[in-house]
Amino acid sequence: HLSAPSLWGIPLKYFSLVTLAVQNSTLTIIMHYSRVSTPSSQRYSAATAVLMNEVMKGLISLIIAFSRLDSGHAPMYDMTQAAGSRGRVTRLRRLWRDVFSPDCWKLSIPAILYVIQNNLQYVAATNLEAATFQVTYQMKILTTAAFSVMLLRKKLSSTQWVSLLFLALGVGIVQIQAGANNGAAVDAANHLLDPLRGFMAVTAACFTSGLAGVYFEMVLKGSQADLWVRNVQLSLFSLLPALAPIILSYRGQESNGVGSFLSLLFRNFGVWAWATVAVQVLGGLLTALVIKYSDNILKGFATSLSIVISFLSSVALFNFHMTFTFLLGSAVVLVATWLYNAQPKRTAYFPISRPCD
Ligand code: C5P
Known about the structure:
It comes from Agaricus bisporus var. burnettii (strain JB137-S8 / ATCC MYA-4627 / FGSC 10392) (White button mushroom). The chain has helices at about 10-35, 45-70, 80, 85-100, 110-125, 130-135, 140-150, 160-180, 195-220, 225-250, 260-265, 270-295, 295-320, 325-340, and strands spanning about 5, 10.
């Protein structure tokens, strides 16, 4: 067991949870604003944002993984290798070996799922109001639970099952509000948002979130590999699926060459697009920390707290009209989240087979 690590005297566990809550709501708002504040013809490419997210997250994780080898933190690190003049080269070789380990392919599955999820998130944020998106996205607790039961053989209490039903009910109530608000929600060019499209995107994102999260947990807990090395592997496997839609859209262009490719890639990619990417990178790193230093149960708390923050910000920033149905649905979602999390930690972890050797 690790001793409790801390940052500026705050245990990393609480630091990552509170920061994740703030990050979650900031991302929802910034992403929504960055998409609807310009007419659709002047929007930046969501595919580029997803790619940049993976590149930056991968680089940061690589630096952290390397520095952990430097200080001998990585599991099973042979300290004698760190000594001597060839220490740095040895460490780089060691890092290379870790990243391209025989089991690295296992990360390809969550990597593809997360790329799909991150793209769907943009579709949802473009077509749903920030607060509606935030609440509906809570359905991922439902999918995470289902996949945990199926793949990790987690045991859920009857209270937890009931709370999951309430969660679905609450999301349903919020959707009534989203439908009723249909005519009111518009983007910068006065185009109507498309709540049905947004809802379908968020539902699909909940499935990929649940499956990817559980799969990542399975790979992480089934081996000794360092979390940051796993993150590098995750980002590496994300590059190809993240690049695919960009290359496909570039094939249709008449001009070619690196210059025109880059200008297509970063067309309309302004300050708000970079801000969205930066907040998303932070979220990815925090998610990794939360998985490592606390657990998915506490992660649920963090995201439910972010609902409240998003609500209040949406009302203040986007003139969001809070109706009784919206409040009722959100309250049901919050209570259901609390009920689900208020269980004693007796959930067992029994992998069906050892995922990693
Ligand atoms: O909402 P959810 O928890 O499913 O979101 C996970 C997010 O964190 C995704 O955007 C995913 O790309 C990112 N992530 C990450 N590194 C991990 C796990 C998740 O960047 N190890």
